[in-house]
Amino acid sequence: MAEANLLESAFVYLTATVVSVPVAKRLGLGSVLGYLIAGALIGPYVLNLVGDPENVMHTAEFGVVIMLFLIGLELQPALLWRLRTAIVGMGGLQVVGTGAIATAIGMALGLSWQVALAVGLTLSLSSTAIVLQSLREKGIAGTEAGRTTFAVLLFQDIAIIPMLALFPFLATLQVADGAAAKAGALAGYPGWAQGIAVVLAVGAIVLAGRVLLRPMFRWVAASGLHEILTAFALLLVVGVALLMQFVGISPALGAFVAGVVLADSEFRHQIESDIDPFRGLLLGLFFISVGAGINFALLVAQPFLILGLVVGLILVKAVTLYVIARAFGRKKGEAALIGLGLAQGGEFAFVLFAFAQGAGVIPASVTAPLVVAVALSMALTPLLLMAGDWAMRRFETSPGEDRAPEVEEGHHDIIVAGYGRFGQIVGRMLSTYGYKISVLDHDADQVDVLRGFGRKVNYGDATRLDLLRLAGAAEARLLIVAIDDDEKALELVKTAREAFPNLKILARAIDRRHAYQLMAAQVDGLERETFAAAVRLGVKSLKLMGKPAFAAERAGMIFTRYDERALLAMFEDWQRVEFADYQRIVRDRTALEEELLKRDMIALVGKSDGDEWGEETLEREAFERRLAERAKPD
Amino acid sequence: MIIFAHPSYLRSRANRALRAVAERMDHVTIHDLYETYADFLIDVEAEQRLLLDHDHIVLMHPFFWYSAPPLIKEWLDVVLDYGWAYGEGGTAMAGKTWTQAVTTGSAAHTYGPEGSNRFTMEELLRPFEATAHLCQCRWQPPFVVHSSRQMTPDALADAAHDFAAMLEGLIHG
């Protein structure tokens, strides 16, 4: 099967993906680990179903390029500016620090300083592809820790350029001619010329993005063929990647720059949605090829060396990053997540090792085990991230460590749990009225922001009974559950209902199903979070369509009353019957309710169309004629 | 200014007819309470400012259960405040004319000692008259349109013409 044709290998890859990724996801391991395992299984050392994974890797690296392009596209320059300390400070320290420690260890193990330095710098890089994909999947890409991680990765990607430039000077071995040509078409030129070329290339992208892209996009869009737009978007990425490769920058970094340039163009969303499917598939392919590339033969031959390298790599990187993150003011949990998340070697290590070997910097005997170690460390990333995620949650929610819950004790009439967009409105209204309210929110950033505005907000997870008690739930008269996580809200209602039987509970329902669950948990009342706003917009629409304001308002009230009655009735059905029956009942009931509602609304507002004088037009003419006659003699 | 209040005036031909002529007149402001305060939350300061800007006040509404629709009552309650419209220092309304323009469902002859409604319109409108009096307004003879649901277009036009004439009389009288 080594010479598998395209269809066969596509079949193997897709089968492996379709089988292992859902399994991995179901086991809670995330898709990345699923891809890696799939790759390892079909790779040359287990089932040997595919040929040289190197070939696939080259195709699949394009997935990384697309990913960085999309990341750039989503990144506003303002955010980039805000991250500048994290990028330069933490990213820089990380590369230098990890590199230095790894170099020292390498020298201690008997490598020459040149070799050790090249190895150390290469190992300081982490895997942009795996980490970002996993962060996104876990939903922590947008958090402080996620953004910091991204900033460090960004610096690493930039750092590859000087590394490529530096390595030839470290060469101590004999090399075959032309081996260094891998670094790009301009590698033969002096450093300053390459620098100018890079600046020119980036400048060209910026300029083209601002001036040329818009008319071109419009011209292509005018063809009316959707697939041509997709092709154009892909062409854009491929073109940028090629250009960057030509001047010797990593294509991924170039694509990222191009993405940032296009971030404020009006075609942003179009481009994003057009090439996103490619990103997913190609990234998957990339992860598979990393998995397939793990040299299990070497692992079996020198298990202790390789495992030692993996553990050492992860330890050094995780600890260094943790220390740096703490020094930059990140919380313990966040620092742990950042450190563990970035503890693996990166995909660019493969590139750099190959380059270094070709340039005569590092002998093959040194790179071979390192490549396996890096691949293994990448495969471990999803597990490390799970550990980091766990650490962050633990540090965040357990008392006594880092940020303890801060709850002001004392007497309060009302407790508001969850102080986001919803809870704030309720809370503001009630405190304006003079009630003493105690506010609890579990989002530390949000709490800080609100405190900055001078609001009194307690920090802590409202689902914890001890915090509820501390916030005064035993004496308070009302608990308002306004958190946006439906499961947590339900949990809180149940906890509070049981522990404080006299406490009245009002809750924000996310949707109809959540409303039923809350009703089953015996809340004293609930409001569906978007219902009232939608009805208000309906009322405004009726007014805009020319209905009298009073009629429109009444129509809104009638609609609300019908819908709330229906909700109650359907809740009883929902509790009573199977889902299939429930669907049928809802269908019948909805039809009936709507008939009644229609009757009442029309009685009030009148039919939806027609002139207000309607069929009285003739009568109106008679009225006007007579009025004119009467006006004359006076 | 006409303070107009009808919860569903599009279905009241008489009120539409009267409004139609009033809308064509200069110096007449029609202030539709049910349109402005569909939620019954009256902006007292805005209402008082409007009143200060006008010399003649006409309360125009259907005659529901010998009284006005509830929003008129609410308006009277919150706008004609103690110390503003009456009571100590309450002279803001003093000297304005006050006219009740009312449409009724039953015929004119039913309003009297012999009729099914037992009292005359003058008698039934006494609460408004008393209110106007307390606010030192000049109470005008009420403008009444009877049997509003049975009117022919001609009769509607006549009523509308009379209404316009009454308004003219107030402005130039």
TrEMBL record, chain A:
* InterPro entries reported for this sequence: Cation/H_exchanger_TM, K/H_exchanger, Na+/solute_symporter_sf, NAD(P)-bd_dom_sf, RCK_N
Q: What keyword terms does UniProt attach to this protein?
A: Antiport, Cell inner membrane, Cell membrane, Ion transport, Membrane, Potassium, Potassium transport, Transmembrane, Transmembrane helix, Transport
Compartment annotation: Cell inner membrane
Q: Which GO terms describe its cellular component?
A: plasma membrane
Q: Does the keyword Nucleotide-binding apply?
A: no
> Could you tell me which residue ranges the RCK N-terminal domain spans?
411-530
Pfam families noted in UniProt: Na_H_Exchanger, TrkA_N
Bilayer-crossing residues are 32-50, 56-75, 87-109, 115-135, 147-171, 191-213, 225-243, 249-267, 279-298, 304-324, 336-356, 362-385
Membrane topology, from the record: Multi-pass membrane protein
Gene Ontology biological-process entries: potassium ion transport; proton transmembrane transport
Annotated GO MF terms: antiporter activity; monoatomic cation transmembrane transporter activity
Q: Which family does it belong to?
A: Belongs to the monovalent cation:proton antiporter 2 (CPA2) transporter (TC 2.A.37) family.
By what name is this protein known?
Glutathione-regulated potassium-efflux system protein KefC
Source organism per entry reads Candidatus Phycosocius bacilliformis
TrEMBL record, chain B:
- Domain Flavodoxin-like fold, first and last residues per copy: 2-165
Pfam families xrefs: Flavodoxin_2 (PF02525)
Q: Is Oxidoreductase tagged as a keyword? A: yes
Which keywords belong to this entry?
Oxidoreductase
Molecular-function GO term, any one = NAD(P)H dehydrogenase (quinone) activity
Could you name the domain of life of the organism this protein comes from? Bacteria
Record's InterPro entries?
Answer: Flavodoxin_fold (IPR003680), Flavoprotein-like_sf (IPR029039), KefG/KefF (IPR046980)
Q: Does the keyword Oxidoreductase apply?
A: yes
Q: Which Gene3D superfamilies match?
A: 3.40.50.360
Name recorded for this polypeptide: General stress protein 14
Species assigned in the record: Candidatus Phycosocius bacilliformis
Gene responsible for this protein: ywrO
